[in-house]
Amino acid sequence: MNQETPKVKSSLMQNARIFYLVPLVAALIPFFANDYLQFMVNMIMVYVLVTVGFNLVIGNLGQLAFANTAFFGIGAYMTAILMNYAGFTFEIALVGAAISGGLAGLLASITALRGIRLYYLAIITLAFGELMRWVYIHAESVTRGTDGLPLPDVTVFGMSMHSETAKFYVFLVITVLVVKGTSNLLKSRVGRAILAIRDNELTTASLGISTANYIILTFVWSGSVVGVAGAMFAASTERVFPESFGLTEVIVHFAMVMVGGAGSLIGSIIGGVVLTALPEYFRQFPGMEELFFGVIIIAVLLFLPKGLVSLLAKVSPLFRERYYRE
Amino acid sequence: MSDLLKLAGVSVHFSGLKALTEVSFDAHAGEVLALIGPNGAGKTTLFNVISGYVQPTAGEIHFKGEPIQGLTPHEVSAKGVRRTFQNGGLFGDMTVLENVLTGLHVQIDSNFFGLLLGTRKADEAERAAAARARRLLALMDMDGFADQQVKSLSGGQQRMVEIVRTIATEPPLLLLDEPAVGLSPPMRARMMEVIKRLAGEEGISILLIEHAIDLVMAGSDRIVVLNSGQKIAEGKPNEIRENREVLEAYLGYA
């Protein structure tokens, strides 16, 4: 092609391929991280996916649905159950977690489709999360209640995943694939339809777009992504407890979305990283973890209502969301 | 020539107020039909009835031979009757290009898994749509605004974008409610030129409400004149120009 495109400078900072460097650099982490740090990096990837999934419903679709901990818990318990009772290896259990998370998303979408919106949707989906926690506690014969359900030896494609390093590489592959797939969807007619529904559902319908289908799709994809995060969480902690999926967990997920940037995929990654890593750092000072959490949420929402990603968007157009490809 | 849209004795009464009384006319395929009349003549009500936002008190509306009265706006739109709104219906959080792309949505040939995996076919369908959206914008001289947020445009520019987006859906019948109001004179001329070309080359039939009489005379194939909710004349521009009743009622000559 001999076409001149004078307006577009093709410097590295304007080429989205620069983002491929992130996982490549991350792949070097095990060479200098100890086990504790490695565990934290693994947790960061879990929460990146938690936030990516949640943000689709909260930010992109604009629905106040807080069933995220339900998706997360269902993914984690499904993984533990399939590995314990069906003898599945992690890669198969992971698929089970994605499917069950997607089905939970389908269930949550029914409420939104029936015209239950705003605070009503918020309270119903919160109740769904609490109901699931009740199930984890009381379905003792399967979940072992508050004692937690341990995972048998975690293996993937016949290889042990017990070491933090092994988990790291498996998680990295999963995280990259899920984020790339989500990015593909958002930069297409799917992403535009979801955003159009957030903006004006009636106008969207008048363009011949089936709004109901896209509301369902968003919830199902969100549930699947968070279900996968749940599977990773289970593999990481190797024992699943009901307490991990309570109401405070919803607040953490919500804070990650808002601090990173609602409706921004890059924002989800930033929110997941920042709000997993920094509170952990502040844990060495008693009481500081909670304080930090409160302060950063208030500060970001007051001064950066569009999240930390909006700071980066000022520096480079790469951090602005684009919903098309050329 | 086939009748694309057929109105037969359409009346709309709002609790005693007769907004429309037994209006009948046909719109043919591929023509620009202008709807004119003084303020309060019932032009916008007529648009609302055709597009399903208001239900007729009496009468029938047929589109491509099928009755469409009583359908919801969404159902009417699905049949191929699309309209623009006076105060716009653009997606404010998207760029101009992304807005036009939502109009192309149903024409993009891709499925969920193709998009998710980023297959070549899905990717090419997306790129082709973006290229088509830019071409449609260029038609209206709006290609320079493609990457701007819709919020940052003037009202007239936003209407241009909305028309481009509606055209992108390839509607058999397009209802335009005062598309030229608030536009600069060169933009108005451009708008009429585009409307004529849409009808001629793209085969889109257009039903147009317009106040600027010069544009209507120059740009439409036929004109229907409403006054106080009743049709008082119908014909080619030169016939309307010489119609005595129209001159009295609308153009204000005695």
Walk me through this protein's architecture:
The complex is a heterodimer of chains A (326) and B (254). Chain A is an all-alpha fold and 326 residues long. Chain A has a domain at 33-248. Helices cover 68% and strands 2% of the residues of chain A. In chain A, strands 1-4 form a two-stranded antiparallel sheet. In chain A, helix 2 runs antiparallel to helix 10 (211-237), helix 3 crosses helix 10 (211-237) and helix 7 packs antiparallel against helix 10 (211-237). Chain B has 254 residues and is of the alpha/beta class. Chain B has 2 domains: 3-80 and 171-251, Rossmann fold; 94-157, no CATH class. Helices cover 40% and strands 24% of the residues of chain B. Chain B contains 10 helices and 10 strands. In chain B, strands 6-7-8-3-9-10 form a 6-stranded mixed sheet, with helices on both faces. Chain B has a 4-stranded antiparallel sheet with strand order 2-1-4-5, with helices on one face. In chain B, helix 3 packs across helix 5 (120-139), helix 3 runs parallel beside helix 6 and helix 7 (185-200) runs parallel beside helix 8 (213-219). Chain B is globular, with a radius of gyration of 19 Å. Chain A binds chain B through residues 180-181, 184-185, 187-190, 192-193, 195-196, 198-200, 202-209, 217, 263, 323-326, and chain B through 73-74, 77-78, 82, 89-94, 97-98, 101-106, 108, 110, 112, 115-118, 122-123, 126-127, 129-131, 133, 165, 169.
Which features would summarize this protein structure in a list?
heterodimer; A: 326 residues; mainly alpha; two-stranded antiparallel ribbon; 14 helices; 2% strand; B: 254 residues; Rossmann fold; 2 domains; six-stranded mixed sheet; four-stranded antiparallel sheet; 10 strands
Tally of helical runs of chain A: 14
Low-confidence stretches of chain A: 1-9
Number of helices of chain B: 10
Total number of domains of chain B: 2
Whole-angstrom Rg of chain A: 20 Å
H and E order of chain A: HHHHHHEEEHHHHEHHHH
Count of β-strands of chain A? 4
Q: What's the CATH class label of the largest domain in chain B?
A: Alpha Beta
- The termini of chain B sit apart by 36 Å
**Nearest-integer average pLDDT of chain A:** 92
Fill in the CATH topology of the largest domain in chain B. Answer: Rossmann fold
CATH superfamily of the largest domain in chain B: P-loop containing nucleotide triphosphate hydrolases
What's the CATH architecture of the largest domain in chain B? 3-Layer(aba) Sandwich
Structural class determined from secondary elements of chain A:
mainly alpha
How are the strands of the biggest sheet of chain B laid out side by side? 6-7-8-3-9-10
Structure summary, number of beta strands of chain B: 10
General form of chain B: globular
Neighbour order of strands in the largest sheet of chain A: 1-4
Which outline of chain A best applies?
globular
Helix content of chain A: 55-70%
Radius of gyration based on Cα positions of chain B:
19 Å
